[in-house]
Design brief:
Length: 95
């Protein structure tokens, strides 16, 4: 699910992609957003807050998306409990 809302300590966070039932999120990190020194610190706090509630974030960048699909898939699958299966279903608005 894209931009799934997660509330932690009264704040709302929106992982770029999320599997809420598994508390697994994917965050895309582009280099441009880190030009402000405070941004990296805020990002670390955000990840710490989410991790404190059981969420795990997998960080990906352009090289991950342009590279070996199998490597990224493996990274994501390693975050899942053994025996986990799910179906990818496009949302109605994506059709």
């Amino acid at each position: 699910m894209a931009q799934h809302p997660v509330q932690v300590r009264g704040k709302w966070y929106f992982p770029d992609l999320a599997w809420p039932a598994l508390c697994l999120g994917v965050e895309f990190d582009g280099a441009v957003k880190y030009t402000d020194p405070g941004t990296l610190y805020q990002e670390k706090l955000r990840q710490e807050h989410l991790a404190g509630t059981g969420w795990r974030l997998v960080r990906v960048g352009w090289n991950d998306l342009r590279g070996d699909d199998a490597a990224l898939t493996t990274r994501l699958l390693q975050c899942l409990p053994p025996g986990t299966a799910f179906e990818l279903t496009p949302r109605a608005w994506m059709r």
